[in-house]
UniProtKB/TrEMBL annotation:
GO MF term set: DNA-binding transcription factor activity; transcription cis-regulatory region binding
HTH tetR-type domain mapped to chain residues: 27-87
DNA-binding region in chain numbering: 50-69
A matching Pfam family: TetR_N
Keyword vocabulary terms for this entry: DNA-binding, Transcription, Transcription regulation
Superkingdom classification of source: Bacteria
Name used for this protein in its record: Bacterial regulatory s, tetR family protein
PROSITE patterns according to UniProt: HTH_TETR_2
Length: 152
């Protein structure tokens, strides 16, 4: 068996082009499944759907689904990872402009709070007073963390 470095350069380039195209197509198929599942979740308001519904919505085959995912649980995990990644990016972008660590924490908490509500148009479950109290508690705790420890 020959080593990859022993193969002619033209052959390596041809294989690389082929692999790159296959990866791109696979990524597009995965994204169509994710988009279909997300649309179903939004419509139903829950994750109570079947793989067949996702396959039908994405206009792909069941075989293609199982080539990309091990099952519904893996599809849901992919959606969850995607949501976490987007949230982390949003929090990073929103906190980049702040130098004060407490202000950064406040912005991050507010964004997480807003993002965790099931329906962004729904009323806030707690009053602004309670929210301010929570932020004050965070501020007080952070001050105690910055003070020297009496035991040290």
């Amino acid at each position: 068996m020959t080593n990859a470095s022993e193969e002619p350069a033209w052959k390596q380039r041809a294989v690389e082009r082929s692999i790159k195209t296959a990866k791109l197509r696979a990524a597009q198929r995965v994204q169509r499944f994710l988009d279909a599942a997300q649309a179903i979740i939004i419509e139903k308001g829950s994750t109570d759907f079947t793989v067949q519904e996702v396959v039908d919505r994405s206009r792909q085959s069941l075989r293609s689904f199982y080539l990309q995912f091990d099952g519904k649980h893996e599809l849901l995990l992919a959606l969850f990872e995607d949501a976490l990644s987007r949230s982390a990016d949003q929090i990073r972008a929103a906190t980049d402009g702040h130098t004060d660590p407490l202000e950064r924490l406040k912005v991050a908490i507010e964004l997480l709070y807003e993002a965790s509500r099931p329906d962004p148009t729904a009323q806030r479950p707690c009053s602004p007073t309670l929210r301010r109290a929570c932020l004050l508690r965070i501020r007080l705790r952070s001050r105690s963390l910055t003070r020297p420890c009496w035991r040290c």
